[in-house]
Amino acid sequence: MSDKSKYNSVITQLIQVSPTMKIIRVKPDQWELPPFKAGQFVVLGLMGDEPRIPDADPEHKPADPDKLIRRAYSIASSSKDDYVEFYISLVKSGQLTPRLFNLNVGDRLFMSQKPTGMFTLDSVPEDQNLILFATGTGIAPYMSMLRSDALHRQGKIAVVHGANNSWDLGYMSELRLLERFFPGKLVYYPTVTQPDKEPAGWEGDTRFFEDIWKDPAFKDKIGFDPKPDNTHIFLCGNPNMIVSMKEILKADGFKEHTKREPGQIHAEEF
Ligand SMILES: Cc1cc2nc3c(=O)[nH]c(=O)nc-3n(C[C@H](O)[C@H](O)[C@H](O)COP(=O)(O)OP(=O)(O)OC[C@H]3O[C@@H](n4cnc5c(N)ncnc54)[C@H](O)[C@@H]3O)c2cc1C
Predict the structure, then answer these.
(1) 90 in contact with ligand 1, CB cutoff 6 A
(2) Is the C-beta atom of 43 inside 6 A of ligand 1?
(3) How far, in Å, is the centroid of ligand 1 from the Cα of 187?
(4) What is the helix (H) or strand (E) element at residue 59, kind and residue range?
(5) Residue 43 host element (H or E)
(6) What are the contacts of 244-253 at 24+ separation with CB within 8 A?
(7) Exposed, middle or buried, 32 (CB in 10 Å: 0-12/13-18/19+)?
(8) How far apart are CA 157 and CA 53, in angstroms?
(9) In this model, does residue 122 exceed pLDDT 70?
(10) Which of 144, 134, 124 is nearest to 41 (CA)?
(11) Cα(10)–Cα(15) distance, integer angstroms
(12) Tell me, what's the pLDDT at 171?
């Protein structure tokens, strides 16, 4: 019998966004998650002997049935919510996600008790504009920022969300609604990179971030001209996107932000 005594939280809601994407809400059981900064992450875990979804692929590395499988997940909710929300993509050959996707409301799991991470707005001055680039579930930390106090900052915000298919653009309706509530402050810019697969067509952009960034029409669309002295850029999700966007941004004078040397490029690889 595996040891499930480390399970300290309960699933309270599951929203199937697409066949491979889920929004999962979790509540700590008899403890409180300390206040966290929007953009931070926690670790979720399940024992290796938990069942995987029936249509999972064989595991690329079989999980140890007696050990807790632990993975980092960005928090998508705000510190004010009484649940912790995650936006999770299924990796069919993975260890944790096929087990997470098999859980139902009421099931228990492990959640680390101390949110961590530097992918926050802490180092961004109030008056700076923000461009938040996300692929897939990389939108999660931005949802936490927008649901916290990012929209009350002075600068403007553009959220550029890319996915292969429109049905993988989670949070689209909330982002469209926020855009309507905050005209001139927030622009939502979705892009779908496999438009030929759209059953009902796709009217929006179909380009990769690199081409969108280089297009002069982008600054008209977002309502400001992003320069290193007025804008901070956040990149979250696919590691290849992050590498190539960093290169392009650096050529345009932006500098990577580190603890030691402040800059305008902030990145979180999933
Ligand atoms: C700071 C941080 C925050 C994160 N936040 C999120 C989040 O909010 N939502 C989320 O879905 N994930 C997030 N991740 C990724 C997450 O931690 C896991 O890596 C992911 O869920 C896969 O776990 P797994 O155990 O199912 O797969 P693993 O057993 O770890 O196997 C992953 C393997 O599958 C391959 N792979 C193929 N497609 C993917 C893919 N889309 N993602 C990861 N690996 C892939 C990789 O090459 C890797 O070798 C985050 C990662 C970090 C470091």
Answers:
(1) no
(2) no
(3) 28
(4) none
(5) strand 41-47
(6) 244/210, 245/133, 245/209, 245/210, 245/213, 248/210, 248/213, 248/214, 249/213, 252/228, 253/227, 253/228
(7) exposed
(8) 38
(9) yes
(10) 144
(11) 15
(12) 98
CA–CA distances in Å: residue 58 to residues 74, 93, 162: 26, 6, 28
Distance 226 CA to ligand 1 centre (A): 31
One-letter amino acid identity for 267? Answer: A
* Residue to probe by mutation, ligand 1, list 86, 97, 118, 120, most atoms within 8 Å of CB: 97
Q: What is the pTM of this model?
A: 0.96
Q: What is the mean pLDDT of residues 10-25?
A: 97
Q: How far is CA 203 from the centre of its chain?
A: 24
Pocket of ligand 1 contains residue 141 by CB under 6 Å: no
| Residue 14 clears pLDDT 90, i.e. is over it | yes
pLDDT in tens, 106-118: 999 999 999 999 9
Distance CA 259, CA 123 (A): 9
CA dist., res. 167 & res. 72, Å (int): 24
What's at 209, amino acid-wise? F
Ligand 1 centroid vs 223 CA: distance in angstroms?
A: 34
Ligand 1 pocket check for 115: Cβ under 6 Å: no
* Paired sense of beta strands 21-28 and 9-18, if any: antiparallel
- Bridge partner residues of 68 (DSSP): 47
Give me the helix-helix angle, 140-147 and 172-181, nearest 10°: 30
C-beta of 137 in contact with ligand 1 (< 6 A): yes
Dihedral-angle region of residue 222 (phi above 0 means left; psi in -120 to 50 means alpha; beta otherwise): alpha
Using pLDDT thresholds of 50, 70 and 90, give the confidence band for residue 1. Answer: low
